[in-house]
Design goal:
This protein is of the alpha+beta class. Helices cover 22% and strands 38% of the residues. A four-stranded antiparallel β-sheet has the order 1-2-5-6, with helices on one face. A two-stranded antiparallel sheet has the order 3-4.
């Protein structure tokens, strides 16, 4: 599995206005992380640099859970 440089840059360009994207190698593909992606609780940072997606074989996959999955599906994304 791999991700082409061109596809990774394309995705970074699409998301550039929304998040500060960091990338790293991830099981032969690329992990996408948002920095800062802060969750504050009692004025303390409890999360930073969260992986929210990955690219494998030039396909973008978002990290989802039971709470976020319906939101993605409502936008027409496939599971």
């Amino acid at each position: 599995m791999s991700a082409s440089t061109e596809y990774v840059e394309y995705i970074r360009d699409l998301l550039a206005g929304l998040l500060d994207i960091r990338t790293s190698k991830f099981f032969g593909g690329v992990a996408l992380r948002a920095t800062p992606f802060l969750v504050a609780e009692n004025d303390k940072m409890i999360a930073d640099n969260i992986q929210f997606a990955m690219i494998q074989n030039d396909v973008l996959y978002f990290v989802v859970d039971d709470e976020t999955r319906p939101k993605y599906e409502a936008k027409g994304m496939k599971a």
